[in-house]
Automatic annotation (TrEMBL):
Domain RCK C-terminal per the UniProt entry, residue ranges: 1-66
GO biological process: one example: potassium ion transport
Organism in which the protein naturally occurs: candidate division MSBL1 archaeon SCGC-AAA261D19
Pfam families recorded: TrkA_C
GO molecular function: monoatomic cation transmembrane transporter activity
Gene3D superfamilies: Regulator of K+ conductance, C-terminal domain
Protein name per the record: RCK C-terminal domain-containing protein
């Protein structure tokens, strides 16, 4: 995830993800972080999205610079 993205600083439960897409895992500074609703996303987190292909593609924009 890049600095300035819509998702930066938000909790997973605050994201407006498509219905059949979810955050499966976060990689932060080489550590695996479980993806739970209260997890706050940070710059440089690597986000693993799980879901239907078209929903995952749609969600990717949340993690790019806005």
């Amino acid at each position: 995830m890049v600095k300035g993205s819509q998702a930066e600083g938000k909790r997973i439960k605050e994201l407006n993800l498509p219905e059949l897409c979810t955050v499966g895992l976060i990689v932060r500074e080489g550590e695996l972080i479980p993806a739970v609703g209260d997890t706050k996303l940070r710059e440089n987190d690597r986000i693993v999205l799980v879901g239907r292909s078209k929903d995952v593609v749609s969600a990717i924009d949340l993690f790019r610079k806005s």
